[in-house]
Structures are given as C-alpha cells and as structure tokens.
Design goal:
The chain has eight helices and no strands. The chain has helices at about 5-40, 45-70, 75-95, 105-125, 130-155, 160-175, 180-195, 200-220. It starts with a helix and ends in a 9-residue tail after the last helix.
Length: about 230
C-alpha cells in the first residue's frame, strides 16, 4: 500500500462520514431523546435511547463501510479521535449533551476511543478491515440492539436476558463472516456485555478482538466465511 494515494482516496469518504456521524450525534439522537421523553420514558431512558442511536447509526454504519471504502488506517483513527475530544470536552466543562451524556460516566468517550484504536491496530493484521469491523459491529449494532431491547422492556439500564439474546441474534450472523472463530467471538462478546464490572464499550471489542487475533494466528483455517 502506498500511503499518500490511499489517503487521497479515503479523504472525501472520511469527511462525508464525519459529517454523517456529527448529524447523528448532535441532531438525530437529540430528536430520538425528545421523542422518548414525549412518549413518557424517564429522562435517563431517553438519554440511553439517544446513545444507542449513535452506536448503531454512527459507529455501526461507519464500521460496516470500513472494508468497502477505506484503504489505510490513519483517517478512521483521526475521525474517532476528533469525536472522542468532542464528547470528552463537555464532561470537563459540565455542559453535557443531555440526549446522550450523563454526569456519572463517560461511556461514550470509551466508545469512540475504543472504536478508533481497534480499527487502527487490527488493520495492520488485516488490511481488508474485516478483522477490525467485526468487533466494532458487535460494539455498535450488537450492544446497540441489546440496549434498545432492555430500555423498551424495563425503561431503565438493566442487564436483562432479553437484551442479551437480542445481541446474540445480531452478533452471530456478523461473526460468521469470519468463520467458526467469528461465531465464537460473537458468543464471548455477548457474554462480555452481560458482565457488570467493565464498560461494554471496552469489554465487548476487547474480548472479540482477542479471540479473532488468536484465530488469525493459530487457526486461520477456521476463519473462512460461513457464507
């Protein structure tokens, strides 16, 4: 890969996707939050809905496009770091975006930072981006769906099994792209989301990435797509 031509190729897509994620984060998620409040959901539930919309339509959409668009790892990392700074500053100033931020945690900061680092690091093992995209899709689509299911069911943050099953149903078809190792990573990532001790935005992609990296080096024959 020649870096400069790859950067030139990727730059317009990076700008467009950064604009899309900004639209989702600062406009669309706010509208979802407001709709949830009008529907009678508690404010905390509205914030949770807003956050999961960003997971799915922001991080998830871009992760899905990584293998089809990007040829280098620098611009995806740069986008993620810019967004990390953008969502971290309100925690420092106390002026939170209430439709997806709360004063008691910085999970959205963990999300953008983990997204960027995994996309960057795993690209060096697999420049097609699939090795990176799969754990990012678990974190975005899988965890997004589990949060929405639980929020509708309980109207508060809770680790209910309904959401866990929803995440598993989403993640297994995604993981199958990377064969039997991918399916195993989907199951273990779902269990990682269920545990209450470490933020999902760290635990899910970390566990999935670890499984996929081990498979990449030791059982590559089991990583052939099941489709």
């Amino acid at each position: 890969m020649r870096l400069v031509p790859a950067l030139i190729h990727d730059a317009p897509f990076a700008v467009l996707l950064l604009a899309w994620v900004s639209f989702v984060t600062f406009y669309l998620a706010k509208k979802v939050y407001e709709a949830a409040i009008r529907a009678g959901y508690p404010e905390a539930s509205g914030t949770y809905f807003g956050r999961k919309v960003i997971h799915i339509l922001g991080g998830g959409v871009v992760a899905l496009l990584l293998p089809f668009i990007f040829r280098e790892p620098i611009l995806p990392l740069a986008m993620a770091l810019l967004l990390t700074v953008a969502v971290y500053i309100p925690h420092r100033t106390g002026k939170l975006y209430v439709w997806f931020q709360t004063p008691d945690n910085m999970y959205e900061v963990h999300f953008t930072l983990a997204w960027g680092l995994i996309a960057f690091i795993l690209w060096f093992l697999d420049p097609t981006y699939w090795l990176a995209a799969v754990p990012l899709l678990y974190m975005s689509f899988g965890d997004g769906v589990t949060g929405i299911v639980r929020n509708i069911r309980y109207r508060r943050r809770v680790k209910g099994w309904e959401g866990t099953l929803g995440m598993l149903a989403v993640c297994i078809p995604i993981g199958a792209v990377l064969g039997y190792v991918g399916v195993l990573s989907a199951v273990l990532a779902t269990l990682a989301e269920k545990q209450p001790f470490i933020d999902d935005n760290v635990a899910v992609p970390l566990v999935a990435s670890a499984v996929l990296i081990l498979g990449h080096f030791f059982t590559p024959a089991l990583m052939t797509s099941l489709y």
